[in-house]
Structure formats: structure tokens, C-alpha cells
Amino acid sequence: MTDTEQEDTVPRNPPNGEPGADQESPGTPGARVPTVAGALVLLLALAALFWPSNGKQPGQGVLLVFDPLVARADSDQLYGGLAAELAVAAGRPLELVVTRHEAEFWTQIAEGAVFILCPDGMALALERTRFAPLVAGRRAMPRNLRPRGVLVYRKSAGMISRPWEERPNATILGDSLSLTAIGAVDIKDTADSGEAFASWATALPECGWGIDPYDHSAVLHAVRLGCFDYAVVRQWDADRFLAGGLLNPVEWGVEALTGPVPDIVLFASRDLSRTRRLECGDILTRLGRSGAGSSSRGSETAAALDRLHLTGFRLLLEPDLELLRKGYPRYWPRRVD
Fold first, then answer.
1. How far apart are the C-alpha atoms of 173 and 160, rounded to whole Å?
2. Gyration radius of the chain over CA positions
């Protein structure tokens, strides 16, 4: 409770602490007012010791979103609707926190979060004992299946299976956090030696790197303009450029590098009961479908999905995630504190 609220709640004595001239005699009911006021002050002082000091409402949780490109002023417009939907499902108010940098993201994780929206590669570093998978992003047909990481290469430069090692100066990766960009990349020497490295970008400094894990268009523009001969990107982004004539299939080839991956994922704290998590997953999978949605903030939710090129979500089961972990555990960057 704020100081202002205390001033409005606690009865005030006249100046200098002197009793008012019209104060009733000790034998009347009014004589108990100072006693009640003193009790209120004591209760308020005790409440101040236990009341949350971070501005959150009692029982309020956090929806943590990692989005390196969203402006802070736009974060509520884009993700406020999603927070409202999840608050209904979780049965508690949610504070929306959008982070743009990895350090901010991990700091907020340490402080606590009920829901986390982030790239799949980033999610693999979450503690499995603290967070459970809920859903993965769903796209419009024909790109409604899970994407793969693919290599887009200039045919005149030749097909190379590991260009980030053989020709790093001519290679750019879509980002350093999604499996479509770095799912096929491993750093065996570093991993086998037990040395920790902060990110793929520090492990492969000669390569180019995109900054948006949700959209590799900027990377593909750099490739088509002649800056690079090789790009490791999301399959759907490469397909859009080929279908739209931005990449000429006569000049450019595409090879799959990974199996299907979840891409954009949403996790929930295990502090939520299993029943609550199931309810959240049900609401999320109905988002974007005709007539679905439990919140009046449908337009905000649609804006967030559109920003991520999504039409909704599909369930991400824990056994599926464990299979994914087994495919990418050994060479994954270990976060350095």
C-alpha cells in the first residue's frame, strides 16, 4: 500500500497532536476512536512489511516475451491481448514484460515468470524442473507444419554442407537463438573440451548473424544483394523469397539441414497446476480460429500473432520436447554468468 493510500485511510489528529475541543468523554463511544486508529496504524505498518514492493497485485504473475525488435511503447499493443487471454486461463492477473536482450531475459527468469514466449532454441536452456511446454506457433497453410532449418546457397559458389566452418566470411545465419538458424550448427571442439561459451555469435565470430529470431527476411535480403553466398534460415522464409521472385531458383539452391522444429514456443511455470496448464493450452490452441477466444482484446492478440507471422498455436507435448532436447543437447551454448 502506498503512502498516499495510508494518509487517506488513517484518521488524522488535530495539529500538534492535541485532542480536538469537541472530543467526547472517555465514557462515550467516540472515546474509542484513538484506540481504533492506533490499531489501524499498527496493522498498516505490519502490512507494509509483507505487501509486495514491486508494484504487482497480490497473486500477480508475469508473461515474459522475448522480442528483440519490438519498441517498448508498442509492447502492450502487440502482446497485451495475449496476456489477457492467459490471465483468464491462469485465473490470476498477469504483468506483461517484453525483453529485447538476452541478459534482460535471463534476469527476468531469475526473478520469476508464469509464462514465457520465446524462440525454441532459447527455450531449451530453460530449467525443465521449473517450466513446462504448452504450445508452439501455428502458421497459415501451406506453411502450417513445423519448419526446418535450410541452407540457401548461391549455385555458382557451390554447395557446401558446413559453410559456417569452410567459408565463414561468406555465410550468414538467420539468428543465434532459433533452431531453424543454428539447429544444424555444432561446435564439437568447444563442447568436448567443456568450455562454456555465451552464444553462437561468439563461437563463430567470422560469420554474419541476423538479429530477429522470428523473421529471417533481412538475412535473405543481404544474401540476394550479394553480401553472402550462404544463409542458414527458416524454411518458410526461404520459400517466401523463392515464391515471390526475390530469389531466382536458377541462381539459388536450397538444402534441408534440420528436421522439423517447434520454432516459436510458449512455456508455463510448473507452479501452475497441471489442470491450469491444460486449460491454458486449450485457450491458446483456440486463438486465431473462427469464433474462438475468451478475451475482448482479440485485436491485440491478432496483432501479436501477425507480428510473429503466426495464425495461432498448436500443443507442444512434453515427450516431443524431450526428443528435441536429445537431438540438440551436446553442442548447445551453455549460458555464462
1. 14
2. 27
What φ, ψ does residue 61 adopt, rounded to 5°?
-115, -175
Domain boundaries, the chain: 62-143+262-327, 149-256
Alpha-carbon torsion angle 146, 321, 316, 113, nearest 10:
-120
Spatial distance between the Cα atoms of 236 and 260, rounded to a whole number of angstroms:
11
Beta bridge partners of 64: 97, 116
What is d(CA 257, CA 180) in angstroms, rounded to the nearest whole number? 9
Run of H or E including 254? strand 252-256
262, 120 contact by CB (below 8 A): yes
The CA distance from 173 to 233, in Å, is 6
For 140-159, b/e burial (b = at least 16 CB within 10 A) is eeebeebbbbbbbbbeeeee
Given this structure, which CATH class describes domain 62-143+262-327? alpha beta
All three cell numbers of 91, joined, read 485465473
CATH superfamily of 149-256: Periplasmic binding protein-like II (3.40.190.10)
pLDDT in tens, 280-330: 999 899 886 655 444 455 667 777 788 888 888 999 999 998 888 888 755
Q: Beta 131-138 vs 312-315: how paired, if at all?
A: antiparallel
Q: Name the phi and psi angles at 318, rounded to 5.
A: -60, -40
Lowest mean pLDDT among 136-140, 262-266, 302-306: 302-306
